[in-house]
Amino acid sequence: MLTKIKFAPGIDKQDTAVGAEGRWVDSDNVRFRYGLPEKVGGWQSLLTDTMVGAARKQHAFVDKDGNRYIGIGTDKFLLIYFEGQLYDITPIKTKITTVGMSNADATQEVSLTFSAAHNLEAGDIIYLDNVTVPSGVGLTDAAFEKKLEEVKDLGIVEVIIEEPLLTSNNLYTVGTLLRYNAMIVKTVHDVLGVIPKFISTYNARKYAFPQLVRENGKGKRVLFGKFPKGCDKKKIIWEEVRELEPKIEWFYTRNNTLRKECFDMADAYTCVKGYMCKEDIWQI
């Protein structure tokens, strides 16, 4: 005769294995659902980047446009996580206008001489802007220029640059991106003789993939309007690009997840396609 044995949910670590009759006494990676044990689903990393320092605190918030952010504070940096990427918004404690850089020999180790007291401590992070690297160290401040030289003879007549959303609440990130774009514009003009055109991330996505513009819960037609909150917008854009361009070779990690540069590639494609659609240049 078969006898049905019922076990109560949960793990009993108070009684002995003999005394805990009808109960579970041990488990590994198990949770109870509807009274029955099941395997824990596990987790997946959101980032391939490594944060500098130990994360001490995080805060999730939503801006007025419905964009979702996570602020992360480490013992070294203040970071914002947004759409699969980390952005550095660490306030600058001390600004020094001039720092001398020198090297003692033909190595990539350099010494910095500050023009004023810096009050830095061992382990502090410094940010260098507008750097001219000493000769003989094997480094160069023209790495981007060299890349452009490689494509100089391809007949490039238009260059499209993705610009930050100027109405964003994150003024530090906007300022950083504008400075970076200014350097790119100068180098592109010097090497290719082309004055770049600009398009915002929002407009690039809107014009490149108008099917993503839908009504939100308030009846307003916006980008990603019908998608659930917290959706991976970069993954959605990548899927649109993959469908349009099946011959593009994408890169994967050892865990068979997309590498970060795949989303950068999809964003670059979307930037150009969005601009061309906006200007009625794109032809299918």
Task: Give a verbal description of the structure.
The structure is a single chain. The protein has 284 residues and is of the alpha+beta class. The chain folds into 3 domains: 32 residues, no CATH class; 34 residues, no CATH class; 140 residues, no CATH class. The protein is 24% helix and 21% strand. The protein is built from 5 helices and 14 strands. The chain has a 4-stranded antiparallel β-sheet, with no helix packed on it. A two-stranded parallel sheet has the order 1-2. α3 crosses α5 and α4 packs across α5. The radius of gyration is 26 Å and the shape is extended. The termini are far apart. The relative contact order is 0.08. The model has no long low-confidence stretch (mean pLDDT 80).
Helix and strand arrangement:
Blueprint: E1 8-11, E2 23-24, E3 30-33, E4 36-39, E5 55-62, E6 68-74, E7 78-82, E8 85-88, E9 99-102, E10 111-114, H1 143-150, E11 160-163, H2 171-192, E12 197-200, H3 201-208, E13 213-215, E14 221-223, H4 233-244, H5 260-278
Order of helices and strands, N to C? EEEEEEEEEEHEHEHEEHH
Mean pLDDT over the full residue set: 80
> Would you report the number of β strands?
14
**Rg calc:** 26 Å
Strand order of the largest sheet: 5-6-7-8
- Indicate how many domains the architecture comprises: 3
Task: Name a few traits of the molecule.
alpha+beta; 4-stranded antiparallel β-sheet; 24% helix; 284 residues
Can you summarize this structure?
The chain is built from five helices and 14 strands. The protein is α+β, with helices and mostly antiparallel strands. The chain has three domains: 8-39, no CATH class; 55-88, no CATH class; 139-278, no CATH class.
